[in-house]
């Protein structure tokens, strides 16, 4: 990376290059070709419907192949499972398929059957999306449902901190950061399940 030719101050040049590198890392994480999966979570929407604490199936770790193998096994254990998420049609589902291919892992049947995959954005805003597309929290607020906590953009920083702690052999810090990632994922998934139940009830 290099700064524009009109940048003369060494500090400004260094700051610009550092910012571009960080942006590239974040963008790289959004592509299945350069990113990786470090956490996943499933929530039973039926629990939300029954007003009980949602049961979760989740895992987190830096060994992506091991993590994906477990995730696929969780999916295959319930072949009738339907998956629903936000922006999942254009991001989550293709990303998981891509990372399965990259790790030479057979995709679960659920990800092969489009009749078992549902995307909240496509349902509410149309397959191509509209100006009405919003964040998960904006949807939840509009439906007067509890919003999620934390931001997805913070996960990358937590992951880097976890890796740095592991390299330094600070396993307590490593485990703490990975738990934060897992907790965020579960919280995000429960919030999505609440909205999914509202959609299903209104269908």
Q: Please report the number of helical segments.
A: 9
Main β-sheet: number of strands, strand sense, barrel status? 2 strands, antiparallel
How widely separated are the two ends?
Answer: 50 Å
How much of the sequence is in beta strands?
5-15%
The counted number of beta strands is: 4
Report the radius of gyration as a whole number of Å. Answer: 19 Å
Q: Strand order, biggest sheet?
A: 1-2
Overall 3D geometry? globular
Class from helix and strand fractions = mainly alpha
Write the layout of secondary structure elements.
Blueprint: H1 10-28, E1 39-43, H2 45-49, E2 56-60, H3 64-76, E3 83-85, H4 88-102, H5 109-112, E4 117-119, H6 120-125, H7 136-142, H8 155-167, H9 171-202
Parallel strand pairs: 3-4
Antiparallel strand pairs: 1-2
Helix pairs in contact: 8-9
Walkthrough of the structure:
With 203 residues, the chain is mainly alpha-helical. 56% of the residues lie in helices and 8% in strands. It is built from 9 helices and 4 strands. The strands form 2 sheets. A two-stranded antiparallel ribbon has the order 1-2. It has a two-stranded parallel ribbon with strand order 3-4. Helix 8 (155-167) packs antiparallel against helix 9.
